[in-house]
Specification:
The structure holds two protein chains of two kinds. By secondary structure, chain A is mainly α. Chain A is built from four helices and no strands. The chains are: A mainly alpha, B mainly alpha.
């Protein structure tokens, strides 16, 4: 059955991405979820900005830490803001997201991998310029 | 058998028509619309990932010009990030308000989101004009071309998001909390939150890694 006023599904079947399975439509109840999301997100951001400016942390670990924090923060946004969760009613949304992540992964990792190898094997730019003269 | 109401849109509006279909049958229009929009957003994310890949490949091709370390000002980036994170929260408040049909939560959330979005755009525009004034425009080096393409593409999306937002405020004002309008509000929320996720990638990969040791 769906709520005939809003069209929000309440009981059976799937759930639209972005919709929360809220039993009541109380605003205050929903705001709690968004506040948790905001707090986690701000915490990840502050830590990431702090890491880049500090000398307290082993320097070579910083880029990896920034990437990990970014991925964690994206996860927080997906769960608390987009409400894409692992609940059974959200399976279709998660499947689409999984495929999206797969394509993004192939695109970025594949490009970086191939291009660094090409760069490595290329003749140095100065010699290339001399050959063109 | 389950009874669901499906909206049939025709000539200027939607009418609620009770439709009977089998268990596990056709999903409600809200689900179909939001799912379709979700798939579009994922394709948009794939497009952004191509820009990210181009940026990461070209980040060291500065052609003797300035690199990210020379150009990026992290305090402005922190302000921009604050604007977008807060706006994601206010956008969530607005969508809760729309669902509860509460005018003050809905309009309050939307206006706050619009102000934060415009503040972000102004900061970014000022940043871009500063860079170009320093001679670090998109034509300076491959690195800067990739930088302006990636960050500018996100800025264009935010601009479209603000227009989308104003449209949704006007539509709710003019037509009320009808199911078809609420579906569009849902899509707007998805769009805005997705842009925020892309900004997380930008401030981490472009700005933080750009100045990281």
């Amino acid at each position: 059955m769906s709520d005939t006023k809003t069209g929000v599904h309440v009981h059976d079947g799937d759930i639209a991405p972005g919709d929360e399975r809220a039993d009541g439509t109380e605003v205050a109840e929903g705001i709690r979820g968004y506040l948790i999301g905001l707090a986690l997100s701000v915490a990840a951001t502050v830590v990431a900005f702090f890491l880049v400016g500090t000398s307290l942390v082993w320097q070579p670990s910083i880029p990896a830490a920034v990437i990990v924090l970014a991925i964690a923060q994206m996860g927080v946004h997906v769960v608390f803001f987009l409400h894409i969760t692992t609940r059974p009613d959200s399976v279709n949304n998660v499947m689409a997201l999984t495929f999206g992540i797969f394509v993004v992964f192939v695109l970025i990792v594949g490009s970086v991998w191939i291009m660094t190898h090409l760069n490595y094997n290329m003749i140095p730019m100065e010699r290339l310029m001399q050959m063109q003269r | 058998m389950s009874m669901a109401r499906t909206d049939v849109g025709f000539a200027g509006g939607a009418v609620n028509v009770p439709v009977v279909h089998a268990e596990g049958g056709v999903a409600s229009k809200r689900i179909v619309t939001a799912y379709g929009f979700w798939v579009f957003l994922l394709s948009d994310v794939v497009m952004f990932s191509a820009f990210f890949a181009a940026y990461v490949v070209l980040v060291n091709m500065t052609d003797g010009g300035p690199s990210g370390r020379d150009l990026f000002n992290l305090s402005i980036v922190a302000l921009e990030t604050g604007c977008l994170l807060l706006s994601s929260f206010t956008c969530g408040v607005a969508s809760l308000g729309a669902r509860a049909r509460n005018n003050s939560w809905y309009y309050g959330g939307m206006i706050a989101t619009a102000i934060l979005g415009v503040a972000f755009l102004l900061l970014e525009f000022r940043d871009f004009t500063n860079l170009i004034a320093q001679g670090a425009g998109p034509s300076r080096s491959a690195f800067l071309s990739a930088y302006f393409a990636l960050v500018g593409c996100h800025g264009v999306h935010v601009t479209m998001g603000v227009l989308f937002l104003l449209t949704m405020m006007a539509q709710v004002y003019a037509k009320g909390y009808r199911p078809d309008i609420l579906r569009r509000v849902l899509c707007f929320g998805l769009f805005w939150h997705t842009l925020d996720i892309i900004w997380v990638g930008i401030f981490s990969v472009v700005y933080l890694l750009g100045v990281a040791p």
